[in-house]
Amino acid sequence: MKTGFKIILFVFALGLMVCSRQPVKAQCAQCAATVETNAKNGGNAAKGLNNGILFLLGAPYLAAGVVGFIWYKKYRRKNVDLNIRKEKLHLN
């Protein structure tokens, strides 16, 4: 396939996805009903549910950051002598 055709196909598919979006409910019916009832009665279950969602969202990024930091500390080179010539480079 030619590159131009691939780009046009990608843009067309992306346009279809953007135009055909529909609102969805991210919670199960039971969770939504419980939180809605609790919020009407003055409870704070919605706040707890939102905090739980944020915790679950942040946990993988935190784990990846810790692994990356450990990898950086373990495999970085220390006291490496760079033998760079003192000559000026002519790139023209």
What key phrases describe this protein's structure?
single chain, 92 residues, mainly alpha
How much of the polypeptide forms β-strand, as a percent range?
Answer: under 5%
Backbone shape: flat
Total number of strands: 0
Oligomer: single chain
Low-confidence sequence ranges:
none
Largest sheet: none
Give the % helix: 55-70%
Mean pLDDT: 82
- Based on secondary structure, the structural category is mainly alpha
Rounded Rg:
27 Å
Taken in chain order, the helices and strands follow as HHH
- Distance between the first and last residues' Cα: 38 Å
- H/I helix tally: 3
Describe the overall structure.
- By secondary structure, the protein is an all-alpha fold.
- The protein has 3 helices and no strands.
- The mean pLDDT is 82.
Brief description of this entry?
The chain has helices at 3-19, 29-40, 45-75. The chain is mainly alpha-helical and 92 residues long.
